[in-house]
Amino acid sequence: MDRFLDAGVFSTGNSGTQSPTNGKKPLPSTGVISPLSSPIISASISGGTRSRPTTQSGNSGIKESGDSNSVTIDDANDIERTERLTLEITKVTEQLLQAIANSDFDMYKSLCDPKITCFEPETIGNLVEGLDFHKFYFDTVLSAKASKPTINCTMLTPVVHTLGDEAACIAYILLLQYMDRNGQPQSVRTEETRVWHKKDARWQCVHFHRSGMPVASAIKSSFATSLL
């Protein structure tokens, strides 16, 4: 509606509606065309090819209503897509944590980008790239898992930020439960953030940041004395 009003105010021409002159010679038109007396202007501005009646403003209101409905549908689709991606990222993160708890390096490797980067207590402030750093712990600390109690991982309060259809970030609290060498239950809390990227229809972790106690130290403390 506003664009029609603006167009009417600033439009000029050589024809217009003449007012009665009481028998006197009519004065020439000033050339100013009111927005409501110029259906051709309205039709041209709105992209039409023929004149339309002055009720164009009413049609404009209907069109705006249609646009609003379209936006609502798009918003609903965005919400559905976000919920679906959130579930996918939460599930794949749980799978990665389970691979660590089960000492399953093959599964861990399949869920990580070959050039994965990380900051974690074990890196002592350095940015580490690649899987070799993590494989060391699977080959040493985690390789003795069969000789110690099962470790239980619980992911709490996950928050997922979707970055399009092929990238997402998840932040959460990880509670690690285990039995120490004296048979006493212990728990360790860490704060983790992981960045995921979908490649070839598969999600892969490309970066993570973990703070808190080194998990390797906690796991090591659960070994029997004879294993140390």
Automatic annotation (TrEMBL):
Species name: Adineta ricciae (Rotifer)
GO molecular function, one term: calcium/calmodulin-dependent protein kinase activity
Composition bias type Low complexity, residue spans: 33-46
InterPro entries: Ca/CaM-dep_prot_kinase-assoc, NTF2-like_dom_sf
Sequence segments annotated as region (Disordered): 1-76
One matching Pfam family: CaMKII_AD
Residue ranges with Polar residues bias: 11-22, 47-72
Record protein name field: Calcium/calmodulin-dependent protein kinase II association-domain domain-containing protein
Residue stretches making up the Calcium/calmodulin-dependent protein kinase II association-domain domain: 88-214
